[in-house]
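Format notes (please read before filing issues)

Several people have asked whether sequences and structure tokens are stored in separate files. They are not. Every record keeps both together, in the order shown below: the sequence lines, then the token lines. Line labels are part of the format and must not be stripped during preprocessing.
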Amino acid sequence: MPSRVNRYAPAIIRRRRAAQLGNVGVVTRPGFRPAPQDCYRLVYLPDKRILTIKRRAGINVASETQAGQLNEFQSANRIATLDGYRALAILSVIAFHYTVRWAPPNDPNAHFPSGAMFDGLAPFEYGWLGVELFFVISGFVILMTLERCRNVGDFVCRRFARLWPPLVVAATLTTAVIYIIGPLDWRPNRYDYLTSILLIDESITSRLLHHSTKWVDGAYWSLAVEIRFYVLAAIVYLAVGRKFIRLWLGVLVAVYFATLLVDYLPIANPQIANAQRLLSFIFFPEYLPYFTLGVCVYEIYSKGSLRRQAIAGMVMAVCIILYSAAFGENIFVLKDASTCILANLIIFILFYLFLIDHSLVSIFKTRYIVALGQASYSLYLIHQSIGIAIMRKCVEHSLPYLIALPITIGVVIAISHLLFRYIEIPAKTWILRKSQSFVGTVERRVPSLSYK
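Then the structure lines:
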């Protein structure tokens, strides 16, 4: 926030308290003229109230509200560069799924053999690393969200409101499209649909239902990983609060050495195999360094008190990722080491440029890229199965693949923006508004779950 806003913030607070105006706006001096991008700013107060300063009719109006009542999609509560990075991540994933993912040799069943023309081109072959970029962004955002939540109930409501409404609509739409024009072996059954809308890991539902299950859209696997990260992060933050970074880095180190230990033990032992599966499920060691990188970036970005530990954590995460990439471990098995290292270095550089606010990241703040990033969750939910089904039909009707490709991308982007505007935003706003009484009840009746 610009220093000129901070300069007047204490006076605004004093006026508000002196006059006991509650939620009534307080007018600051009319001569204060922020730049256009500074017309809406938030001052976060220690008691989790937010001082909102915005430009209205040539004067500045300040008001206070609870942090939990703000809509996440308000411009003041989003970081444009991160939305731009989301756009880059989803475009990378689309580039992978719409080209080489469903063509031989990646897909022996050749659901979409036309994509093979891009085989061997690194930007398409390794577009799947866009998911890892999403994980870094998620680490950043989740720690930021935890610091603004009143208690565990508040955090759960925020994540539920963010994920679930568009997920149900997208899973339903995807199921319908697959049954109409999709491949026969992609058709989901009721167990697949239930697994997808509840975001329960498919391995769990398969065991519970004694029936093999799969995601409605294969891309949903990463959402199950996100849910496990939310649970782990919420527990760690509840335990230590603002000292989150210290304990989180301890978890990272412990998981890393436990993974090394398990890898060197005889896998034929059933107990060792079970321990390995349990470790992988709870702590997701393949992706933990990416989430760690994100939370450390946030600690540095927010000028937290543990910035030095965060820098050390970034170094550890980077070393673990590069080691895995160089030696073909975890998610990099059978992948080209040099390409994986280069792709990850690009991710690291992007967040370094973000931290120093370099002019090179200004391209990610442009209007259309930010808009695409804001709708990236909805786009991620619908892009793969629906997009491949559309392109298959186009190719079957003699439309050249290179023409069908941009048409399909345009269609799924348009659908995602409709989903974002008419489902994701309204549903999230409504759920957060209705959940305030629940959050207050949790705070009163279960104070041990409070983040204060």
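For reference, the curators noted about this record: The two ends are 24 Å apart (CA to CA). The beta strands are 26-27, 40-44, 49-56, 59-66.
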